[in-house]
Amino acid sequence: MGRGAAFALFLTLGAAGAALAAENTPNEALDTSPLLSSETEALVAQATEEESSDTFLGMDIKGSLGDDRMSRYVPPVSNFIYNETPYITTEVVPIYAYHRLSDDFITNGGHANVVAVQARLAITERLGFIATKDGYTWLNFKDVLPDTSGWNNIAAGLKYNFISIPESETLVTGGLRYEIPVNDISSGGIELAGDGDGFLNPFVTGATTFGKFGLQASVGANFALDSDVDNSFVHYSVHGDYELLPGFFPLVELNGYTAFNQADRLTGALGDLDGADVLNFGSDQRGTTVTLGGGIRYRITDHMLFGLSAETAITDNDDSVFGTRVVTDLTVHF
Predict the structure, then answer these.
(1) Tell me: the pLDDT tens digits for 276-296?
(2) Are residues 107 and 206 in the same domain?
């Protein structure tokens, strides 16, 4: 029982005791009003509402954003698959990404459209369920390969916030995701995604603030369960934002992907090709892709955030599917 509910119960018992005492007092002029006054009933209702507003089926659905906890929630935008926020939240995030392939890529350019929906559920103040990869991808190549489309893999897991300091909005959270291969996306006989046995993705993410400036970073490893078919790689991201106007946050983000275990699905002349994050080509000579971008977060209401970012590869992208990308999302949290 919370302090508000306990206080209301104390008032209720006090009022009841006073009324019973009045019934036994030989004083006809004494007012024997109802056991609960309207003011006491209001306090009881308020306390009950406060106790139940943050919980649903026994879960603390506000997570890190509950009363007397964190209040400055500005999640990253560009690396929406791997750069996980350290906040424990209950939210739904529809996402659209437009991805332009470099003209130096083997197909002489092209583009991709990705739609997805992320979901997160705060089970307790510290523990959360996350579903961060899904959706559908359309690939349009300029030359060499035929256009294709298909469902993305699904990734879900848990994360736990083991350091929380509300005074400075400081959090450190660890998590683990499993990526399930649900469909093969292929073109010209080349498997671009959905092959193999999936991935395990442990990660650590943290955030803090310095006045109006917010800083967030994460690092993790995507381990291919079938290392002959899919590449394993380390992913790392840094996000910085500044509250320029109330609820308006310009931001800058750096994201990187470095392979540490090469597969052999693509070899020879195609062995350098890099699928970055949405796709995994299983190349036998995959290298490192680093991107840099900027954008905004705008808080529309207390429970709704709009995000927009644009990023481009700053490493050699001759063999990378990553040219430039624009991402927009709408975060609805509780």
Answers:
(1) 788 887 777 778 889 999 999
(2) yes
